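Dear colleagues,

For the upcoming journal club I promised to circulate an example of a predicted protein-ligand complex. I picked one with calcium ion because it came up in last month's discussion. The inputs are reproduced below in full, followed by the predicted structure.
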Amino acid sequence: MWLLLSVCVFCLLGCSAGQDRATLWRGNDHSGRCQYTFTVPSPSETSCSPTVSGGPEMEGLKARLSLLEVLVARLTGGEIGGPGAGLQEALTQAMGERILLQGEKARLERDVEGLQRRMEEMRRETERLQSRPCYPQSPLLPPSIPLQDSGLRPAGDPAWQYGGNPVLQELKAEVTEIPAPSPEGREDSTGCGELISIGEPVSHRKADSIAGKYGVWMQDPEAVAPYGGKMVWRIDTVGSEVRQLFGYEDIDQLSKGFPSKVLLLPEPVESTGATLYRGSLYYQRRRSRTLLRYDLASESIAARRDLPHAGFHGQFPYSWGGYTDVDLGVDEQGLWAVYSTNKAKGVIVVSQLDPHSLAVKRSWETSIRKTSVANAFVICGRLYTVASYTAANTTINFMFDTATGQGKEVALPFRNKYRYNSMVDYNHAQRKLFAWDNFHIVSYDVRLGRQ
Ligand code: CA
């Protein structure tokens, strides 16, 4: 900078080199400091009086000095605060942004690495699950296996082997709780109702001697000790002195022909009308209208009573004959007797009996002749009659409702598979008809409608 200033000064000196009267004085000022004085005579002025001061040369010199001041200002402080400061600021800003971008790049790279690790873990988990065998769902599965545990349990863990999806188990539980609709839409499997249909006979045992051509078999629908509800009882009624009562532990033992109990009744049995109820055998004594209650536990007669005016020993039998004058049966409402009297002139009389004393509690007289039907049974207080004991395909042809005292003809198909049906009774515990058809001990499923 000082070099440029010296050049300018010598230039100015050069410009006035042609004027020989220029002088340079050197001396101390009033304070003693050394002072240089440079003088140049004006080429056109002879005096420094105010009237003649200025002129073109002075103006030219002022202009050159102003130009020199601008150049010096640019070379010194002027350039520092100019365009360079903007560049420096832009450079500083760019550097800051670069640092920020580098930080953002590092963060994104970390995120990518994290996602790659998770993808690898999921891939390995998928391979592990695919390599394991599938175990079937079990209805015995404990219902509280958490879903989040399913992929973490070892293969040998029983809980894992039974699966663990509570959602599926709840769906299964919901499905199993929905009852299937009955074909007729009127079936009542828990309560009483009118008989709708009777199934095909199922044979449990064929008697192996002539003594079993006809007879009666029973299960106590409301059994008491010492015999349970599975105990099956049987009386072969061929002969004039029927007194043997065979007991079987269950229906399988009956089918195999292995009785576990044989009781000798104190008084002989008439025909096939006996029944079991609450630990007692109820039957008609031979050649009489006397009813007996035989207690199975004490093996003795617990009650006896004549059935008032009842015909007996062939007076009002079923069409089959066989001295079937008095037919006893049990249903949901208790103990019943089906018979006839002279007063009733042969039509069926149905009476509800007191099971303890055998007294008649109430009687109804129907409109169907007893000798015209093959057999009868009571379901839910309704008496039903079988049309034929020999026709393979016959019907339930009459129903009498003790609740209303009204009877009506019906036509429910009924099958005598062995064509000699000597006994038909209802068991409400099994909801079946028990029958004895030509040596065969058989049963029928029944369907009841709603009340
Ligand atoms: Ca009967």
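Two points we might discuss: Residues 327, 329, 375-377, 424-425 surround calcium ion (CB under 6 Å). The first strand starts at residue 23 and ends at 28.

See you all on Thursday,
B. R.
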